[in-house]
Design goal:
Blueprint (H helix, E strand, L loop, with lengths): L14 H7 L9 E8 L5 E3 L7 E4 H13 L4 E6 L17 H12 L4 E6 L13 E2 L2 E2 L1 H18 L3 E4 L6 H11 L8 E6 L6 H6 L20 H13 L3 E5 L5 H11 L3 E5 L1 H12 L5 H14 L4 E4 L2 H9 L4
Parallel strand pairs: 1-3, 1-4, 1-12, 4-5, 5-8, 9-10, 10-11, 11-12
Antiparallel strand pairs: 2-3, 6-7
Bound molecules: ligand PBG.
The site of ligand PBG has 10 residues, from helix 6.
């Protein structure tokens, strides 16, 4: 059928019709809220480059998580900023570390909320890299042992899902094996499988105080132009035992999300990162964009590209809009 018999505008005429033919949905079920936890009590430090995001001490984190749970958001992902940093990132795998403390408090006080932990060393190392540095570069295999210790320590403290974000080769396999050996065979791994070396992580590094003190992360995170390689990274992580795979960042990599979903049909997460948050916040503050509208448009685009779940600093805002009948 062609014009004038076929008129696509007929089905766009009013909101009821548009609702009936809407092909992609965003639900509160798709949202995961990232949170930053710091030592101390009654600490609430705003992150300058991420308006509305704060580093929280465990007491305030618990309050925040109660609110998130009340909004119907199923899960949060925790990032810890330790008291002290050292070259081996020992705060990451200390059973009394900041994320471990937060996990125990949350599991007791907000038991209905699922808690994912980011498994990486960059927030815990004094040099800010995601692993052990040998001769000026991150040593892959030496880092694996530490990541395993970190994942186990999180699992013991009550993590529901562990999410390795370091991009070391082989880490999913060794973490899976260790979890299984220690009686945590029920804990899923959400692997940051295709994580690109991105300028869009800038604001996160303020929030997590994890900016590399020398060099950059290009020897372990992926080169932005590479799509086939992203599929290989995802394949490896699935073969090593990942239950959920992630593409990160989201907006500039929608093609990767699409190809990963088409190729593997696996549970797929997208990380709508700090820079994607900051640019909308900045434009909205200037009156250049309608924040509520572009947030929903962005999130539905990430869903349309194939993501089942979206890690986003807009999770609470989106949940509120959805509760009001937004889409
Ligand atoms: C690394 C990690 C990073 C993010 C999540 N996990 C930063 C990095 O690789 O530098 C970035 C998230 C964001 O920008 O919102 N542990």
């Amino acid at each position: 059928m062609e014009f004038p018999e076929y008129r696509p505008r007929r089905l766009r005429k009013n909101e009821n019709l548009r609702r009936m033919v809407r092909a992609t949905r965003l639900s509160v079920d798709n949202l995961i809220m990232p949170l930053f936890v710091v030592p101390g009590a009654r600490v609430r430090n705003p992150v300058a480059s991420m308006p509305g995001v704060e580093q929280l001490s465990v007491d305030y984190l618990v309050d925040e998580c109660k609110g998130i749970h009340d909004l119907g958001i199923p899960a949060v992902i925790l990032f810890g900023i330790p008291e002290n940093k050292d070259p081996a990132g020992s705060g990451a795998y200390n059973d009394h570390g900041i994320v471990q403390q937060a996990l125990r408090a949350l599991k007791k006080q907000v038991p209905g909320l699922l808690v994912i932990t980011d498994v990486c060393l960059c927030e815990y190392t004094d040099h800010g890299h995601c692993g052990v540095v040998v001769d000026g570069d991150v040593d892959n295999d030496a880092t694996l042992d530490l990541l395993v210790k970190e994942a186990l320590s999180h699992a013991k403290a009550g993590a529901d899902i562990v999410a390795p974000s370091d991009m070391m080769d082989g880490r999913v396999g060794v973490i899976r094996e260790a979890l299984d050996e220690e009686g945590f065979d029920h804990i899923p791994i959400m692997a940051y499988a295709a994580k690109f070396a991105s300028g869009f992580y800038g604001p996160f590094r303020d929030a997590a105080e994890s900016t590399p003190q020398f060099g950059d992360r290009r020897s372990y995170q992926m080169d932005p132009p590479n799509a086939d390689e992203a599929l290989r990274e995802v394949r490896l992580d699935i073969e090593e035992g990942a239950d959920i795979v992630m593409v990160k960042p989201a907006l500039p990599y929608l093609d990767i999300l699409w190809r990963v979903k088409e190729t593997f049909g696996y549970p797929l997460a997208a990380y709508n990162v700090s820079g994607e948050y900051a640019m909308i916040k900045a434009a909205a503050r200037n009156g250049w964009l309608d924040e509520e509208r572009v947030v929903m448009e962005m999130l539905i685009a990430i869903r349309r590209a194939g993501a089942d779940m979206i890690l986003t600093y807009f999770a609470k805002d989106a949940a509120r809009q959805l509760a009001r009948g937004g889409r």
